[in-house]
Amino acid sequence: IKALTFIRIHHGNNMMNIYVKVYTNSPFLVCMDLALSQKEVIDPNYLWIGPNGKNLKGQSYVNLTETGKLMVRGFQEFMSGSYTCTLSYKTINTDIQEEREKFKTYKFMVYAYREPDYTYQISVRFTTKECRLAANGQFFEELKKILNDLISDLTCHVIEPSYKCHVIKIPKHGLLDELFVTFQVNPFAPGWEAVCQQISYDCEDVTNRRVQEARDLIEEFFHKQTYVLKHEFRNVPAIHYIDHSFEVTRIDSCRPGFGKNDDTHNDCASCCVVCDPGTYSPNNEVRCRICTSIRIKHYGAKSC
User: Fold this and answer.
1) Which among 59, 90, 139, 213 is placed 20 to 30 Å from 41, CA to CA?
2) In the Cβ-directed half-sphere of 174, how many Cα atoms lie within 13 Å?
3) What's 195's DSSP letter?
4) How many CB atoms lie under 10 A from the CB of residue 177?
5) What does the pLDDT read at residue 29?
């Protein structure tokens, strides 16, 4: 899977924010600015320091080229943080035979991120003979079973299903009793972990694709109801789907240790970015919480 990389450049202090998808390789971080790269550089020397002040030369998880470019392989939460390169090089004034050593520092803030997990909130409406009808509950139970059977092969399932009956005043049609049905389509039905066993990287690309397919199947199912009512029923059933009542909204959630932050990470606003030191996320919430009881010094904390 090719990593999507988001880069933000802070010109004032040569700092860049870079977002790397978990389990992928970072882009090459270049220890040189554009202006200097257009010039002759004499005796360049590169010193890369990673998070926690560690010298990265010789580390097994990095690819460090002789021209000072750094790639971090198989990026994970704990690899997030500050990556600093100090470039030393010489300038020679041939007129007076003077040699000077110069230094430049380049700082990169590198963050692990994941795609959010998708769940779809769906609402549909049905006409019914009356709200007190016992068949309403039976119909709802049957509908849940049909929908779950429809998407079970995708290891998706219906969660948080509910319905309410309301009396609706419709212009020029008097009063109608309608069932308002809502539910969520979720990709984590029992057995979903088996889908990921053959995958060495994170599985959310697969689960998101499957839940999108499940959403499409359900949408197609409801759209077909209109055709069936018109062409296959001589008498309209007491409870039937209301055409064009299908509505769907995507709900994002983040894995523990990750969260969204439009302010801090506005260049990766749709991403679930690793929680910063001092924050944590214990569950599938969308935002990292601030921890006040202890001092969290690492990225990706799941508890406080």
Assistant:
1) 59
2) 1
3) H
4) 18
5) 94
